[in-house]
Write a structure and sequence with these properties.
single chain, 38% helix, globular, alpha+beta, six-stranded mixed beta sheet, 22% strand, 448 residues
Length: 448
């Protein structure tokens, strides 16, 4: 099959690689000049390469790691792997040992620094209850609901920062069922699943750029700066119209057997609604497209911010990140020392990335709050901002019972992305798994 993939982020490129492995012919169209979507390279002042937001993976993200290997990226070299740790500047907090699961979690919780015996026993007991219940809860339950009764310190120092980092919402608003799925896969799905995997290179170099090269080496086109204006059904195939004049004429002569929308939900909805107006599309599909688009447009989105700053101070060599105590005027949950992640790159030395997973204020105020948080909690009086990156539509709001659009729109049109129906929150692994599912379903549908 000739398959057009609209979007060159992690989902679109994962689908393209999988379709190529299955013997099909994907062509990727990316509206931007860079590949990677919301997880791409970014140049900071001073020619320092960072990311459009500091990202972290966990060991349970098996499909991300598998696809990296497919496109000749070695995860063991590209990612710094460390056991889960949520240590604070005062030495308190949680740190898992490097042991098989679930022993690592049990020992880590039992030996947490600064927690009383009662607090540690409460968390172990609640984890056991979740496991007995199969890590399931009512669809309407929030994270706060499933953690009700736990000591306040556990909620403040473990549950809340973990919830905000994973689901990008505070515990009182976030989906309990999706939170439990993440906990299950991280803590009980296999040894190393809870490990933190932090990129040692730019996010674009971690998968998107190597994936594009891998595809091009096999004769598949990957077009950047190529926004698709509209889709037109041509019998059982599709005609695409593009803003890039270099390929517009060629596309007029091309027909695709299927189209995969791997772009942001608002752009996917725009294309679906335009297609629904085409009289050549069967009426029932036009109605389905409208329903799908309404579902995509109805999603609420939340912002994530990364404040890049420089300081003469460094974090301890053994752990290149620290948890921070968030508050009303202290919005960051973590700080990463990028000099530890890329020790051979002198431009990274002294560069810190402060992560605000639930950003609710304007850029300038946020930046000043984070700098003051660093001075108060870390004692870094010389901290200076370099650049603050705010991804306003970084994730869909992972609330209880959130309704997410499905994979198939009908008539050879499909969708994938971290917002499409699935068990994970808006993560790289969620995007990749959705893309693989869409590619598989697309192929099976064609065979049927």
């Amino acid at each position: 099959m000739q398959v057009a993939i609209i979007g060159g982020g992690w989902a679109g490129l994962a689908a393209a690689v999988q379709l190529s492995l299955s013997g099909h012919q994907p062509t990727v169209f990316e509206a931007g000049r860079q590949l990677g979507g919301r997880a791409r390279n970014l140049e900071l002042p001073g020619c320092t390469i960072a990311d459009n937001g500091q990202h972290i993976l966990i060991g349970a993200y098996a499909e991300c790691q598998r696809l990296m290997r497919v496109v000749d990226v070695t995860p063991e070299q590209a990612l710094l792997r460390r056991p889960l740790a949520m240590r604070y500047a005062d030495g308190g907090g949680l740190s898992f040992p490097n042991l098989p699961a679930p022993l690592d979690a049990l020992v880590g919780i039992a030996s947490a620094s600064g927690w009383s015996l009662r607090e540690r026993a409460a968390l172990l007991g609640r984890a056991l209850r979740w496991r007995v219940q199969g890590f399931r809860c009512a669809d309407a339950a929030t994270v706060a609901d499933i953690c009700s009764g736990l000591p306040k310190r556990l909620l403040d120092e473990f549950i809340e920062p973990l919830c905000v980092s994973a689901l990008n919402l505070p515990a009182v608003q976030a989906s309990g069922s999706i939170f439990l799925r993440v906990l299950h896969d991280a803590l009980f799905a296999g040894t190393g699943g809870s490990h933190f995997l932090v990129p040692r290179c730019g996010l674009g170099d971690l998968f998107p750029v190597p994936a594009a090269q891998w595809l091009q080496d096999r004769g598949h086109a990957v077009h950047t700066a190529s926004r698709i204006q509209e889709l037109s059904p041509q019998g059982q195939q599709w005609l695409l119209r593009c803003t890039n004049p270099a390929i517009a004429a060629e596309l007029e002569q091309s027909r695709f057997d299927a189209v995969l929308l791997a772009c942001p939900p608002q752009e996917a909805a725009r294309l679906a609604l335009l297609a629904a107006e085409d009289l050549r599309l069967p009426a029932r599909d036009g109605v389905h497209y409208q329903h799908w688009a309404q579902s995509a447009q109805a999603l609420e989105h939340t912002a994530i911010a990364t404040v890049y700053a420089r300081s003469s101070h460094r974090l301890a060599a053994g752990l290149p990140w620290l948890a921070l105590q968030p508050g009303e005027q202290a919005p960051a949950q973590f700080v990463f020392d990028r000099g530890h992640l890329q020790p051979s790159d002198r431009t990274q030395q002294g560069l810190m990335a402060f992560v605000v997973s639930d950003c609710r204020t304007d850029r300038q105020a946020l930046e000043q709050q984070v700098l003051e948080q660093a001075r108060q909690q870390l004692g870094w009086q010389d901290i200076q901002a370099v650049l603050t990156v705010v991804e306003k539509r970084a994730t869909f709001a992972c609330r209880p019972g959130v309704k997410r659009p499905g994979l198939e729109l009908g008539h050879g049109l499909w969708a994938c992305g971290d917002y499409v129906s699935g068990p994970y929150p808006a993560t790289l692994e969620g995007a990749v798994r959705c893309a693989l599912a869409a590619a598989e379903e697309l192929v099976h549908k064609d065979q049927d």
